[in-house]
Design a protein that fits this description.
Blueprint: E1 8-31, E2 37-55, E3 58-73, E4 78-93, E5 96-97, E6 107-123, E7 130-152, H1 180-187
C-alpha cells in the first residue's frame, strides 16, 4: 500500500524504552580481618542487592554486597572468616536517550549482567588488610511516555485486507541474510 491522501497520521502517547546503557567496572575493596592474615584461602561475594535511581542523563545503581574472606593467621595455624558489607553506587550513562520523552513519567530499571565477583584477593603490603578486586556489570533502561506517529486508515483496516501491500522496493528475499541472533540480542 502506498501512502495516499486518504490516509492520516495520528500521534499516540505510549510508554516505551527511551534510554539504555551498560557499564562494566572493576573496583578494589579493602577488608580488615580481626587477625593479621598469613594467607588467603578463599574469597567470595554474596547477597548483592541493588536498586536503580534516575540521575540526570544517567542511572545510578545503588546497592550493597557482602564480602566473605576465609583466611589463615598465626603463621597458618588457625583459620577464620572475615565478613564485611560493602555499599556502592555505580553511575551508568545512558548511551541511547530519546530526548522527546516526558521526563515526569520516567522510570528506570537495572539488571546485573555480571553479578559482583571476586577476581583477585591479596594481602596488603602492610600485612593487616585484604585487598579484594571485584568485577561487575549492569545494564539499565529508562521507560517513559513518548509520542509515536502511526498511519490511520480512515475506512478501517478491512479496506486493505487481502490486497497487495507495497513496502517501497523491498523484495521478498531481501531479509534472508539477516542474522536472527543479532535481532534477538537487540531485542533483549
Amino acid at each position: 500500500m502506498s501512502l495516499d491522501k486518504d490516509l492520516q497520521c495520528r500521534e499516540i502517547y505510549t510508554k516505551a524504552v527511551c534510554g539504555k546503557g551498560r557499564k562494566f567496572s572493576q573496583v578494589t575493596n579493602t577488608v580488615t580481618p580481626p587477625h593479621a592474615p598469613t594467607s588467603i584461602l578463599g574469597a567470595w561475594i554474596i547477597n548483592n542487592q541493588y536498586d536503580a535511581v534516575k540521575s540526570g542523563e544517567n542511572v545510578e545503581v545503588v546497592g550493597t554486597y557482602d564480602i566473605n574472606i576465609w583466611y589463615s593467621y598465626d603463621r597458618n595455624t588457625k583459620t577464620d572468616v572475615a565478613k564485611e558489607t560493602v555499599s556502592y553506587v555505580e553511575v551508568v550513562p545512558l548511551h541511547y536517550l530519546d530526548k522527546k520523552h516526558k521526563p515526569s513519567t520516567a522510570e528506570v530499571a537495572a539488571v546485573a549482567t555480571q553479578e559482583p565477583s571476586c577476581v583477585e584477593a591479596s594481602i596488603s603490603s602492610h600485612g593487616d588488610n585484604v585487598l579484594i578486586r571485584v568485577e561487575r556489570e549492569f545494564k539499565v533502561e529508562m521507560f517513559a511516555e513518548t509520542k509515536v506517529c502511526v498511519v490511520v486508515c480512515p475506512n478501517g483496516c478491512d479496506e486493505y485486507d487481502d490486497k497487495h501491500v507495497d513496502f517501497g522496493g523491498v523484495e521478498d528475499g531481501d531479509f534472508e541474510d539477516l542474522d536472527p541472533d543479532l535481532l534477538d540480542e537487540e531485542l533483549s
